[in-house]
Design a protein that fits this description.
single chain; mainly alpha; about 80% helix
Length: about 200
Amino acid sequence: MKELILSIFDILSQLGYFGIALGLMVEVIPSEIVLSYGGYLISTGKINFLGALIAGIIGGTFAQLFLYWIGVYGGRPFLDKYGKFLLIKKSHLDASEKWFQKYGTGVIFSARFVPIIRHAISIPAGIAKMPLSTFTIYTVAAMVPWTVLFLLLGMKLGEHWRDIKQFAQPYILPIIIIAVVSIVIYFLYKKWKERAR
């Protein structure tokens, strides 16, 4: 399995910027690992930071748009039947649906930084027919800091980019806390606004 993953990264390396975008679109390998590998490629001079950033944002956004469209056109019945083939766990989908129903469209940005929720949050947005333009803006806005963070960490790690999960932990925890607090503040503000009306 390890050799297979390394061979995939070798292919991504040969494809350059397109490889980063493709790796994020397919999402067989977690986005943080693909992006940290992108950071490693930057450190070797094979690609530059701006190109990798653009590729990461495009790839990550298209991956989420794909899930959004599945929600729009397939709905929950389709996902209950075929979700396992798309590596979407029922528990992740249940959790993201609860979050979306509770916090509304504003959760699309903040939830990108919360484990479990972030992989499936696009699906309930699609099921709820959230406006595509709003969905795309929130998604791109979240992809920018996420991509920058892991590219920089990958550059710092260099050849040790495979250790990204352990190395990123001190950075990810504060981001998760900020994201959750932001969601709660947004929810309270929304409730206050409804009562004010």
